[in-house]
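Holo model, iron/sulfur cluster. Inputs:
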Amino acid sequence: MEKKIYIETYGCQMNFSDSEIVASIMTDKNYESTTEADKADIIFINTCSIRENAEQKVLNRLKQLQVLRKKNPNLVLGVLGCMAERMKTELLEETTAGSKVDMVAGPDAYRDLPQLLLDVETGQKAVNVILSAEETYADISPVRYAGNGVSAFISIMRGCENFCTYCVVPYTRGKERSRSVSSIVSEAHDLFERGYREITLLGQNVNSYRYKDEMNGKVIGFHELLQMVADIDPLLRVRFATSHPKDMSDELLEVIARNQNICKAIHLPVQSGSSAVLKKMNRKYTREVYLQRIQSIKTLIPEAAITTDIIAGFCGETEQDHQETLSLMKDVGFDFAFMFKYSERPGTIAEKKLKDDVPEDVKSKRLQEIIDLQNKLSLKSNRDDVGKVFEVLVEGRSRKSDKYVSGRNSQNKMVVFPDDGFKPGDYVKVKITDCTSATLKGVVV
Ligand code: 5AD
Ligand code: SF4
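Output:
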């Protein structure tokens, strides 16, 4: 009988995309995937190290999974991803995970998973946390086991070499490398043929995508890649994440502006509104440069939604610095934001060289002020959309009522409207009649 494998994923979109690669590698070796943990012979937890609470969540989950091991003594439990890379063999110690982990595989070791499972069977230590300078899994076609059949991720590059001082990613995901243009374009093409209507090109910093064509030696940058993917079909929507403000070029903005099927949604993590804090973070731009980039976006793509990431309470952040973050948020008028308290990560430059000196209660208070302001900005942004008409790509039934369907507009806002026999993948013109800070509601026009 084929062994059943269950994959649970934490963290960023890149991790979800990696889990699809893992599923592909395993099904190629005749493992069968299951969506029920208690039916599995093998459980892989694909993990995230970005903040301490992300790791804590995984450690708690590993403890919980102990129950399944009691039921099935042959269960194999593997930890994949960023925590595997950061903690390595430490994870094999029962005291760390509160449960026995059998296998540890970092983000560049997934081709080795079948071998690692054999090592577990023969009682050997099953650990591979070797980072690679070349691995892009370009030839592996991901199994879209958890998707909605309409939108999919395509990973275009791996790793990161920006070394923001707070960030663990350069250590867990290694050197930056870009996947070949032809493998990306053919994967996007194939998804379109299979009925997918939206793809998101993924990388830790997509703006530094660079691939040298083997045939003619020409170097392709991100804006050229984006154009090639957009050219596949006008009915294929294209998104991308994440961009670094320091390399967001006008050339790229022009490509977005020119193509109706490249979504008008730009995620541009600012992290802080204070130039002094940005310097300590090694972000390589100032408040002013960031605001200039925003101005270019607003000039070239007036209808674009702009979203961001913000960290509250980084090392040395003063009340004045915090006020500058709030004022920048108002100046830009972000449509949406992911907001976090600074969490010191072992091995990062900040951990080694800077002091995590903002008291916990101050971090919490600042984060709350940031969240409260963003809620107002999001509500204002949505209210401004009432009366407008958007083209919405239907993803499925609304979670709240089966008389409604939901989908996203180009700006990546969730739109809910009455079902009129729509199918996932349909494009529908919807006039917005009402909203909350999180969702737009509308009627078909
Ligand atoms: N603490 C808090 N937030 C962090 N991020 C990255 N590292 C940390 C950290 N140590 C946030 C940044 C990044 C997002 C993915 O996570 O805002 O853009
Ligand atoms: Fe988490 Fe970053 Fe790793 Fe993604 S790359 S899983 S966000 S640590």
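The pocket of iron/sulfur cluster (ligand 2) is lined by residues 11-12, 14-15, 48-50, 81-82, 168-169, 172-173 (CB under 6 Å). The radius of gyration is 22 Å.
Archived with the compound record.
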